[in-house]
Specification:
With 89 residues, the protein is α+β, with helices and mostly antiparallel strands. The chain is built from three helices and four strands. The radius of gyration is 13 Å and the shape is globular.
Length: 89
């Protein structure tokens, strides 16, 4: 049901329960949130700003991610050490 709702709506509805885990200085890297569901299951969400459009996206990432950079790198299949985003023209 959560996948159908859209993670962005889920995060906005659970804002009072969302713990901000980490926030990167670059909004394109994002803000990492953790929400504990009823059975104690953690859900981690990364809110990122689009590099090309004036909008944000919310992506589910593994609960093992400790920083926004690590979570963003995971979405590209990279480690935080290997992930080096560049400014898009």
């Amino acid at each position: 049901a959560l996948e159908r709702m859209c993670w962005e709506i889920f995060l906005s509805r659970c804002a009072d329960k969302a713990q901000r885990v980490d926030e990167h200085l670059d909004a394109r890297i994002g803000v990492l949130y953790r929400i504990i569901l009823g059975q104690g299951e953690p859900v981690q969400l990364l809110k990122v700003r689009c590099a090309t459009l004036p909008r944000s996206y919310v992506l589910r990432v593994p609960p093992t991610c400790k920083t926004a950079l690590e979570a963003n790198a995971w979405t590209w299949g990279l480690s935080a050490q290997a992930y080096r985003p560049v400014e898009e023209a």
